[in-house]
Design a protein that fits this description.
Helix content is 61%, strand content 0%. By secondary structure, the chain is mostly helical.
Length: 241
């Protein structure tokens, strides 16, 4: 395979993996984080098959109670405590804005960019593995089986995301023909699309659970909470550099 062909492969794989969402809710259009929409203020998305399974494990939502986007509008409960700890853990290990840019930009046959991409991808994969392990070991109140299910599925999702980066970093035999190259790209693309679809399922589950248990959206990305509290949301999302 020619040097140019190898460069095309790396660039294509970089763009493909850059399309893999960084957080379950990012699977929703234009989102890198939990939705900033207050439940009840926007039509809820149709529940996926996985979300329907969780719905069967949770009580009916009482819309009169209303879950707000800010913490002071949520109902104090074990579910609220779990989600707040969950949000803090997840956002502490997500890629920074700088890292996301590096992972998505093309290499343009520049060795420095390849080296930088590899460094960032290695750290991202490590953090996803750590996040998955942390979620797996996290405790969930016995009376919240639906949240336990969500926690385990989310941990598996981050493990799957880590494996994509690890496979891209791992040395592999260069493709000898365009057919081999196409097969490699298709394999990565199929896995990326599968992970993105799983992210949509997890997003639906997340929204349903928060709505059901009257839990606010993640404060790390809630613009209203950031404005009222005076917190700089950008700084909260840029810790992991």
């Amino acid at each position: 395979m020619t040097k140019s062909g190898r460069a095309i492969t790396i660039t294509a794989l970089s763009l493909l993996v850059g399309c893999v969402s960084l957080f379950p809710a990012q699977a929703a259009p234009g989102m890198d984080y939990f939705a900033n929409v207050t439940p009840g203020m926007k039509k809820k998305p149709a529940l996926s098959a996985a979300a329907q399974k969780v719905a069967a494990m949770t009580p009916e939502t009482n819309a009169a109670l209303g879950a707000g986007s800010m913490a002071m509008m949520s109902t104090s409960s074990p579910a609220l405590t779990w989600f707040e700890n969950f949000d803090t853990t997840v956002f502490s290990l997500l890629p920074s804005d700088e890292a996301k840019i590096i992972l998505k930009r093309p290499f343009n046959q520049e060795a420095e960019r390849v080296v930088k991409w590899t460094e960032v991808a290695t750290k991202v994969a490590h953090n996803y593995r750590l996040l998955a392990k942390t979620l797996k070991s996290g405790s969930v109140p016995a009376q919240l089986p639906a949240i336990k299910e969500y926690q385990e599925l989310t941990a598996d999702w981050y493990n799957d995301k880590a494996s994509v980066y690890e496979d891209l970093i791992r040395p592999r035999t260069p493709a000898k023909t365009m057919e081999d190259l196409d097969a490699q790209l298709k394999e990565i693309n199929d896995r990326s699309e599968s992970i993105a679809q799983s992210g949509k399922e997890l997003h639906a589950m997340d929204m349903h659970l928060r709505d059901t248990y009257h839990v606010h959206q993640a404060r790390e990305t809630d613009k209203l909470w950031g404005y009222v509290s005076g917190h700089n949301l950008g700084n909260n999302l840029a810790k992991n550099k």
